[in-house]
Amino acid sequence: MTNTTLQSELTNTSFLNDDRVLRAIQLIWHEAALLDRKDYPQWEELFTDDGLYIVPIDRETEDFHRSLNMIYDDKRMRKLRVERMMQGYAPSAVAAAITTRVISRFEVLAVSDEEVTISSAQIITAYKRHNTDVLGADLTHRIRFAEDGSGKIVQKVARMINSEDAINAAGFFI
């Protein structure tokens, strides 16, 4: 079966029968749970060494390296961001928001033996200082699998629905 044939087959509900896709979705849900628990060190471990976490300003861009981004974190920058969130001295870390993420509307974009790329929709409800905010984003996760079947995030792109508006310091990961 060619990759194109596989892709065509996976665009309908049969993708739920593909073990790689199910493992990728489980990883995405696990990531959301870690972030809601503020378990940032474990979240950081979900990424490959060359993994990127990106929140672009332009929802349509694919050239993240040359575009303006709210976040464009490689391993070093993710580590620094996690340290900031955990030390309690940064404004984003003091009384960090309580969050609940719901991720759904999964669409398989590509599947190979080593990687799965999935898009999804995310709604974050965040509560901080007597204020509740609801944020939406379209996510794209590219997940790479090791021989033992474990997966890691190669790239996470969170396209905020209000990415061109002024956004307050969120105090949490998107």
UniProtKB/TrEMBL annotation:
<protein>
    <submittedName>
        <fullName>Ring-cleavage dioxygenase small subunit</fullName>
    </submittedName>
</protein>
<keyword id="KW-0560">Oxidoreductase</keyword>
<keyword id="KW-0223">Dioxygenase</keyword>
<dbReference type="InterPro" id="IPR000391">
    <property type="entry name" value="Rng_hydr_dOase-bsu"/>
</dbReference>
<dbReference type="GO" id="GO:0051213">
    <property type="term" value="F:dioxygenase activity"/>
</dbReference>
<dbReference type="InterPro" id="IPR032710">
    <property type="entry name" value="NTF2-like_dom_sf"/>
</dbReference>
<comment type="similarity">
    <text>Belongs to the bacterial ring-hydroxylating dioxygenase beta subunit family.</text>
</comment>
<dbReference type="GO" id="GO:0019380">
    <property type="term" value="P:3-phenylpropionate catabolic process"/>
</dbReference>
<dbReference type="Pfam" id="PF00866">
    <property type="entry name" value="Ring_hydroxyl_B"/>
</dbReference>
